Automatic annotation (TrEMBL):
Any one Gene Ontology cellular component term annotated for this protein: cytoplasm
Pfam family, one: YchF-GTPase_C
Domain OBG-type G, first and last residues per copy: 4-189
Protein name, entry field: OBG-type G domain-containing protein
Ranges in coiled-coil conformation: none
Species annotation: Candidatus Zambryskibacteria bacterium RIFCSPHIGHO2_02_FULL_43_37
Keywords carried by this UniProt record: ATP-binding, Magnesium, Nucleotide-binding
Length: 272
């Protein structure tokens, strides 16, 4: 599947780069993801998934390869960016390339870190960002990320007024990052299916509603073009059976054809 990415945006000094750096510390070896961009402003971040760990343990896999989300650190968002202010034109070209947006707003007070508008007002920040996006004709799924600090006072009274789904994080202490990664994955409307064996267990990504041949393309284009059928079992049924052989003996491994809609958590073997 062609890669999908999430752009991280925010006004200056809200903790956007701190968040990006915290996420990319969780990075993965690039050789497992040849389709991903090698760029300092792009982070390839593994999606936490205990299902994969359990399948890997069941199969005694030599390698375990998670699904990933691509996060892009997008600079240049200031008031007037949609009219080319500051790095506005660069900002607009970058944000048009991503598939969903994370808006970082800050609710903690810290006199050492001056806010661009000299006040901590996350709702005002959101209004500015959304006006810039609207003025530029950009309409994408948005997840709000509320940057907090355990070391400071936080303005929690505004949280119930945030105009959409949000996740609270503290990137210094690492709080909330796994939830953010998982929610970003959902924001892109992605699901995970698995392949598992002694060589490797791997989480693969496809769009929700994908047919088996389309999902197979995530592994190799041959799996889409030469698809005959797929063997399917849900991950928890495979664990319950204890092995593929036992699952087959119980009749739990199904044969599905080209019309099958892959479900989140399916374990697949493609036959071509």
């Amino acid at each position: 599947m062609s890669k999908l990415s999430v752009g991280i945006v925010g006004l200056p000094n809200v903790g956007k780069s701190t968040l990006f750096n915290a996420l990319t510390k969780k990075g993965v070896p690039a050789e497992n993801y040849p389709f991903c961009t090698i760029d300092p402003s792009v982070g390839i971040v593994p999606v936490p998934d205990e299902r994969l760990d359990k399948l890997s343990a069941l199969s005694k896999s030599k390698k375990t390869i998670p699904a990933v989300v691509e996060f892009v650190d997008i600079a240049g968002l200031v008031r007037g960016a949609s009219e080319g202010e500051g790095l506005g034109n660069k900002f607009l070209s970058h944000i048009r390339e991503v598939d969903a947006i994370i808006e970082v707003v800050r609710i903690f007070e810290d006199k050492e870190i001056i806010h661009v508008h000299d006040k901590i007002d996350p709702l005002f920040d959101i209004e500015i960002i959304n006006l810039e996006l609207k003025a530029a004709g950009i309409d994408k799924p948005i997840l709000y990320v509320v940057n907090t600090s355990e070391a400071s006072e936080n303005k929690r009274d505004v949280l119930d007024q945030i105009p959409g789904p949000y996740v609270e994080i503290d990137p210094i202490f690492g709080t909330g990052l796994d939830k953010l990664i998982t929610e970003a994955y959902k924001l892109l409307d992605l699901i995970t299916f698995f392949t598992t064996g002694e060589k490797e267990s791997r989480a693969w990504t496809t769009k929700r509603g994908a047919t088996a041949p389309f999902a197979g393309k995530s592994i190799h284009t041959d799996f889409m073009e030469k698809f005959i059928r797929a063997e399917v079992i849900h991950w928890d049924k495979l664990l319950e059976a204890g092995s593929y052989a036992a699952a087959r003996a119980k009749g739990w491994v199904r044969i599905e054809g080209k019309e099958y809609i892959v479900q989140d958590g399916d374990v697949l073997e493609f036959l071509i």
